[in-house]
TrEMBL record:
<feature type="signal peptide">
    <location>
        <begin position="1"/>
        <end position="20"/>
    </location>
</feature>
<dbReference type="Pfam" id="PF00496">
    <property type="entry name" value="SBP_bac_5"/>
</dbReference>
<protein>
    <submittedName>
        <fullName>ABC transporter substrate-binding protein</fullName>
    </submittedName>
</protein>
<comment type="similarity">
    <text>Belongs to the bacterial solute-binding protein 5 family.</text>
</comment>
<dbReference type="InterPro" id="IPR039424">
    <property type="entry name" value="SBP_5"/>
</dbReference>
<keyword id="KW-0813">Transport</keyword>
<dbReference type="InterPro" id="IPR030678">
    <property type="entry name" value="Peptide/Ni-bd"/>
</dbReference>
<keyword id="KW-0732">Signal</keyword>
<dbReference type="InterPro" id="IPR000914">
    <property type="entry name" value="SBP_5_dom"/>
</dbReference>
<feature type="domain" description="Solute-binding protein family 5">
    <location>
        <begin position="84"/>
        <end position="449"/>
    </location>
</feature>
Length: 534
């Protein structure tokens, strides 16, 4: 096979892979050799986050990618795109016309990897447990439309919702709705450490050093019953300190696949076909980056300060200097390819303008330069993050209206500090829980939001979000979604920067790479196989 980038086209703005994969065969690995996958994700247990892999706590793309392999959910997102499909369930559907009663029937003979049967009572226990624990990660907010859960026999579970929620099937596909065994997970307490047990495609075992996962082994679960076809017997996930170390490992043959996060330089090299050891798969993605604000903090409490930043930041320059063709400027929290997107920030602010920003600050009586610190994480979104924040710093400071410094922190300390409100302004990324506009808005704006943000808008929370969720046809939700985006552009509790593509690199003999990620950046290890080098 020629070494070149495989570009997977988008249909109706969503990912629909049409290429089988790198390699000469689409058959799964029949050998005992594990397929080794590299990642720069770090998995660390700390005093603030001692249970990083508990489904009731985990809420980032890295930990979710572990849970999706091992903890089964009632529904799952398909490997291409489209509506969720039954996974642990045999069938699921709304049983009323108002999207307020959702019933599922479990597959017959479903078992945990331990051999214990999976029952409707286990589903009820698992989801009620996540709601009861209500961890400070904010993940339980995904389930906040649930009123009560009832079971009918061992295989049927019915969700009664507080309000209409057409996105509920998607929410049942997320790891917070993962089915756990009450024998392994206490009702009122998170499970500390790195053990994970479930009924998913794989069992999981971690190698841990200094309270961090060095590598993890996923072994095919012989008891698994679900919608996934598992094309290998074993996958090893290795965590690297940075993209360069991961790239060196694939060049030496120590790993077979590179996932997130490769550096822009690595992607450019692979794209040019100058790396003889790996092929690059390029696919549309829904990853976004944004600035978030502690709107109670003195430095940014005035809306005018946040608006002035929105008026000054040059997204085009930022993207071109750091990411090139690997990203695009973003003018809403909702990516441009998702139904309901509007260019709200461009409509509000237009092109970058120092004069307009100066006017905004002057009318609000803000003394300039405004002194700020922008915080970013050094090890969670890739090595280019520092350069990105250096450019943001320069853009703001060159205006003469701001005096900005930047500080980087490892994710293990960054995330707890952000949740505690210790940062006034900080950079975040978002990999959607599911590909719907609601999931790019509600997690940041609703009560008990993911960021722990003090921003509170009653119109958004009590009217517009519920109104948008009543629309089973998501085109019908566009009016409500646009109103939310317009309010966000006016109030600026968050400031979108860019949306990016996603990439996987693999050696020639690895098959299934085209489906290794879906548009929500879900890692689908079961798709990988070992074929014929070519």
């Amino acid at each position: 096979m020629n070494r070149k980038t495989l570009v997977l086209p988008a249909v109706a703005g969503l990912l629909t892979p049409v290429l089988a994969a790198c390699g000469g065969s689409d058959s799964g690995s029949k050998s005992g050799d594990a397929i080794v996958v590299g990642t720069t994700d770090q998995f660390t247990a700390t005093k603030d986050a001692p249970a990083p892999l508990d489904p009731a706590y985990a809420y980032d793309v890295g930990t979710w990618n572990i849970l999706r392999q091992s903890v089964q959910t009632l529904m799952a997102q398909p490997k291409g795109e489209g509506d969720p499909v039954p996974e642990a369930a045999e069938s699921c559907s709304f049983t009323d016309s108002g999207s307020e009663r959702y019933a599922c029937k479990l597959r017959e003979g479903l078992k945990f990897a331990s051999g214990d049967p999976v029952t409707a009572q286990d589903v009820k226990y698992s989801i009620e447990r996540a709601l009861r624990i209500n961890s400070d990660s904010g993940v339980s907010a995904l389930l906040n439309t649930i009123d009560t859960i009832e079971t009918q026999g061992d295989r049927e579970v019915v969700f009664h919702l507080k309000t209409a929620d057409a996105t509920f099937p998607y929410k049942l596909s997320t790891p917070v709705a993962g089915i756990v065994n009450p024998q392994d997970y206490q009702k009122d307490k998170l499970r500390d450490g790195f053990e994970v047990d479930g009924s998913g495609p794989y069992t999981f075992k971690a190698e841990v050093k200094d309270d961090a996962i060095v590598s993890a082994t996923f072994t095919k679960n012989a008891s698994y019953k679900g919608s996934m076809k598992v094309n290998n017997d074993k996958v090893e996930l290795r965590s690297f300190t940075d993209a360069d170390a991961m790239g060196a490992a694939i060049d030496k043959g120590d790993i077979d696949v590179m996932t997130r996060t490769m550096s822009p330089a690595q992607i450019q090299k692979l794209d040019a076909g100058s790396d003889k050891n790996a092929d690059l798969v390029d696919m549309p993605g829904l990853e976004i980056r944004y600035l978030a604000f502690n709107t109670d903090a003195t430095s940014v409490k005035s809306k005018a300060v946040r608006q002035a930043m929105a008026q000054l930041i040059n997204r085009g320059e930022l993207v071109s200097k750091v990411y090139g063709t690997q990203a695009e400027p973003l003018y809403s929290m909702v990516p441009a390819t998702v139904t309901g997107h509007s260019n709200a920030f461009f409509n509000q602010y237009g092109n970058p303008s120092v004069d307009k920003a100066k006017s905004l600050l002057g009318k609000a009586g803000i003394t300039t330069p405004v002194k700020l610190t922008l915080h970013y994480t050094t090890d969670h979104y890739g090595s280019a993050t520092k350069q990105e924040f250096q450019i943001l710093q320069k853009q703001l400071n060159d205006s003469g209206l701001f005096d900005v410094s930047i500080e980087g922190h490892p994710w293990a300390t960054f995330r707890p500090a952000e949740r505690k409100g210790e940062y006034d302004v900080y950079g975040m990324g978002w990999f959607p829980d599911f590909p719907d506009a609601d999931n790019f808005l509600a997690p940041f704006l609703d009560k008990n939001n993911f960021l722990g943000s003090p921003y509170n808008n009653g119109t958004i929370q009590r009217t517009l979000i519920p109104q948008s969720r009543r629309e089973a046809d998501r085109l019908g939700a566009a009016k409500s979604l646009t109103e939310i985006q317009d309010i966000v552009a006016e109030d600026v509790p968050v400031l979108p920067l860019w949306q990016g593509k996603q990439y996987v690199a693999a050696r020639d003999d690895i098959t299934g790479v085209a489906y290794a990620l879906n548009s929500s950046s879900t890692l689908q290890l079961w798709e990988l196989g070992r074929g014929v080098s070519g």
